[in-house]
């Protein structure tokens, strides 16, 4: 595989071209390096190449990968967050992209108050309406944003996130990204707040996302190649034969593990 620095040079050139086409400053766009299913060494490689934000889908994956990696980058949770993992997520992540209900936001605020934390969050919006995707309905976003502003003083709401439906044609994603930007703009106007972040666009459609206003593009495959095959594993404590809590890992990476067939 090509050197990551060379890959990044090409990706950033495409981002810059997309910014030029849409009259934007390339400095407005940051890459979230998605290291899902890759080991800690890939985080280190990303950091060495100058990437400053690591994106992970699961709390339990970041729990072993973050301490095993080089310090320095921000860690962002981009996958679904269960309410029973909020405390652990607040311990691990600098920003949560996937708040999908007022109930979850209120839970985050409650735990953050106990911890003395000030989490940054985005609201995840299911713009496409696909049942397979997480996120709130577009018509619910304004009320959830208002609830956070009025009732969740520990939380800093920074913007919105979405995922477009898969398509071989990147152009098919444009209406979904445009709709997210329009929702964001409407909420800014109605609530009188700034929401500077739009997390949208992945390896197959990030150029379109940038043209439509993305400030964070979530890139994995285009940077690191195809993901390794996931193995289900269980953490094994000293003297324990496999009764520890479950987590995801790859080829036995992470804590001491027993691979589950």
What's the CATH topology name of the largest domain?
Answer: TIM Barrel
Structural class computed from helices and strand pairing: alpha/beta
Largest sheet, described in full?
Answer: 8 strands, parallel
* CATH H-level homologous superfamily name of the largest domain: Alanine racemase
Q: What is the multimeric organization of the chains shown?
A: single chain
The CATH class name of the largest domain reads Alpha Beta
Strand order of the largest sheet: 7-6-5-4-3-2-1-8
> What is the overall pLDDT average?
90
Number of helices: 9
- Written as H for each helix and E for each strand, in order along the chain, the element string is HEHEHEHEHEHEHEHEHEEE
| CA gyration radius, whole angstroms | 19 Å
Distance between the termini: 30 Å
Could you describe the 3D structure shown?
- The protein has 261 residues and is of the alpha/beta class.
- It has two domains: 223 residues, Alpha-Beta Barrel (TIM Barrel); 33 residues, no CATH class.
- It is built from nine helices and eleven strands.
- The strands form two sheets. Strands 7-6-5-4-3-2-1-8 form an eight-stranded parallel β-sheet. Strands 10-9-11 form a three-stranded antiparallel β-sheet, with no helix packed on it.
- Helix 6 crosses helix 7.
- The longest helix is centred in the first third of the chain and has 19 residues.
- It is globular.
- The C terminus is likely disordered.
């Amino acid at each position: 595989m090509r050197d990551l620095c060379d890959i990044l040079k090409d990706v950033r050139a495409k981002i810059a071209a997309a910014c030029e086409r849409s009259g934007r400053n390339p400095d407005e766009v940051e890459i979230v390096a998605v290291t899902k299913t890759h080991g800690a060494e890939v985080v280190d490689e990303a950091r060495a190449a100058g990437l400053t934000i690591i994106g992970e889908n699961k709390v339990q994956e970041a729990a072993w990968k973050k301490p095993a990696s080089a310090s320095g980058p921000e860690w962002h949770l981009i996958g679904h967050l269960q309410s029973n993992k909020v405390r652990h997520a607040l311990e691990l992540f600098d920003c949560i992209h996937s708040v999908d209900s007022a109930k979850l936001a209120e839970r985050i605020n409650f735990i953050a108050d106990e911890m003395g934390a000030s989490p940054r969050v985005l609201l995840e919006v299911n713009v496409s309406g696909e049942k397979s995707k997480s996120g709130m309905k577009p018509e619910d976003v304004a009320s959830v944003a208002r609830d956070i502003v009025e009732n969740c003083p520990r939380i800093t709401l920074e913007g919105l996130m979405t995922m477009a439906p898969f398509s071989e044609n990147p152009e098919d994603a444009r209406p979904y990204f445009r709709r997210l930007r329009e929702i964001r703009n409407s909420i800014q106007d109605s609530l009188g707040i700034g929401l500077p972040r739009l997390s949208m666009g992945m390896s197959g459609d990030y150029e379109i996302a940038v043209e439509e206003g993305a400030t964070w593009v979530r890139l994995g495959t285009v940077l690191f190649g195809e993901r390794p095959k996931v193995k289900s594993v269980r953490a094994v404590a000293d003297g324990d034969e496999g009764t520890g809590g479950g987590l995801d890992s790859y080829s036995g990476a992470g804590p001491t593990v027993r691979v589950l067939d």
